[in-house]
């Protein structure tokens, strides 16, 4: 299957239920918007609190994109290629640390559809609500 957006992929797979397609697209938009906005807000906050980290990130971005001190935003955008992003290891580390400290989804809840036993041996019944912290389970 060629690369494409989720709508194109659903149509290519033969999905014909318009309500299902609409619900799927809306779920992706809503989930992506809030988690991305929250992560970026915390990232910018942390950069402001730690100017030395901010300068290291800025330097790495300038070097990876071959920008000069007085480059425009358009020149920056043009320099953000996959190759340039692959060189931004410090930026990746800073973003990863932001997510570690301030996870985009601190608690996730699920509803049990049937009786089950969790990996630690705890039993849950149909209809029980279970919440977990992805942060605490990350390895």
From TrEMBL:
SUPFAM superfamilies: Cytochrome P450. Belongs to the cytochrome P450 family. GO terms for molecular function: heme binding; iron ion binding; monooxygenase activity; oxidoreductase activity, acting on paired donors, with incorporation or reduction of molecular oxygen. This is Cytochrome P450. The lineage of its organism: Eukaryota, Viridiplantae, Streptophyta, Embryophyta, Tracheophyta. Its cofactor is heme. Keywords: Heme, Iron, Metal-binding, Monooxygenase, Oxidoreductase. InterPro entries: Cyt_P450, Cyt_P450_E_grp-I, Cyt_P450_sf. It comes from the Eukaryota.
